[in-house]
Amino acid sequence: MYIRQQSLLSFENIIALQPKTKLELIFENIDLSEATKLLPRFGRGPKGYDLIPIVRALLAQQIEQIPTRAALVRRLVTDPVLRYACGFNIIGKVPSEATFSRYFNILNENGFLQKIYFDLVDKAMELGLMDTKVIAIDATDLTSYERVKPKKKLNSDDPNTPDWGSKMDSHGNQKTWVGWKLHLAVDNKSELPLAFMFSKASKADGEFAIPLVDQVYEQCKAKEYELPQYWTMDSGYDWKRIYEEIYNTYIRLSNYSD
Question: Is the pTM of this model over 0.90?
Fold first, then answer.
């Protein structure tokens, strides 16, 4: 007869003796106390769900590259270490996919997730991890999980509706997808984005260069960061008006103000 040997230590004791995971180290440096003030409580029990673990789980989904809310719930159910890192009871139930989606929508609408990110950017500046001297601008594809539709059936008037995009990859191959584009202005030293915008996949990258430059300049001035001196972009931004606008409106005037 096989008799399972009992452990002398609890799960929490064993975890405490292990090196901290990546998620635990990240969560230690993110202040989520404001989330409890911005989010309503609903769900099980007289007080509803504990909000901090839910926000941590939504962040963990992005950090661990978990593709969907359903996959996040499955991972939390089967992975006690992840539940522990997020702050859920390791033997209790976890919120449903619908609950996570509801809270995510609320966080997205009130701008809390963006605030968390830029608080971390401020910390990176304080630690000398970024200097904003050289900024790179580029776009990446975001693929939609919706069923692919022909172009003639897409709603071109709705900016949130995914559409067809096409571009050359780094190897010179033509790539097509259905979804959107994420346009980024990134600090070259830390590779942290300072500004980002979303668009339909069919939009040209160059259309978003100046709006991103403007966002970066406004943020640098507001936070008293060093103003960018150099901008790097690929051939998709090789537009004469982009050169002229950056030089005349930003670089030349910045040099005069100095």
Answer: no
